[in-house]
Design a protein that fits this description.
Strand content: 15-25%
Shape: globular
Oligomer: single chain
Low-confidence stretches: 1-10, 17-26
Largest sheet: 5 strands, antiparallel
Radius of gyration: 17 Å
Number of helices: 8
Length: 199
């Protein structure tokens, strides 16, 4: 179950790296933010000769720059976020970031030969939705829509819709399944994430 969660999270992060090919010139816009984030990250993260520790640090910087981990943690836990104590919420946020870094940072070196075309941006109740198409040599084009919000005065990615499927909704379902399988408590998910991130 956790592997499926991780794969979906890796998808959203890997797509950010892919966007270097579709870098937008506009600054101060949602599309420009995503493209600039990719342009900053991709030369380092996709370098196969980069040492593991350095790649992990750069990956952490990508997470911190492009995502609001507290907001994302709250969205994917859904109703279980309210059930969790403040201490559990904070631990989950840290464990989620640690899990992503530990398991997936090194896989960026495998992510090659893609191009992403940034399309139109639509707005709905203060949220920007940036459409794009990922083109790859190994398969058909993939339609993506990025949900970008301004939190604390900066742009952050809060969801990615891949071919009509929301990453947040998918993660919420999978996290809920883990929690139900482990007694209906957030602590069950935390236990599993601790195991997966233990040095």
């Amino acid at each position: 179950m956790i592997s499926a969660i991780g794969r979906s999270f890796f998808l959203i992060l890997a797509m950010v790296a892919a966007m270097a090919a579709g870098r937008a010139e506009a600054q101060g816009t949602a599309a420009g933010f995503i493209s600039q984030l990719a342009a900053d990250a991709v030369p380092v993260l996709t370098n196969p000769s980069l040492p593991e520790k350095e790649r992990e640090q750069k990956f952490r910087e990508l997470l911190d720059k492009g995502f609001d981990m507290r907001e994302l943690s709250q969205l994917v836990l859904g109703r279980y976020w309210r059930q969790a104590s403040p201490a559990e919420q904070e631990e989950f946020k840290g464990l989620l970031e640690a899990y992503l870094i530990r398991i997936y940072a090194d896989r960026f070196s495998e992510f090659q030969n893609v191009a992403l075309e940034v399309g139109n941006t639509r707005q709905d109740q203060g949220t920007d939705f940036v459409s794009s198409t990922m083109r790859q040599t190994s398969g058909p084009p993939v339609q993506l829509e990025w949900r970008v919000e301004k939190l604390g005065g900066r742009y952050v990615i809060t969801d990615l819709v891949v071919e009509g499927v929301s990453m947040v909704i998918t993660q919420r379902s999978e996290f809920a399944s883990v929690i139900r399988q482990r007694g209906g408590q957030v602590s069950g998910l935390l236990d599993l994430l601790r195991q997966r991130t233990r040095g």
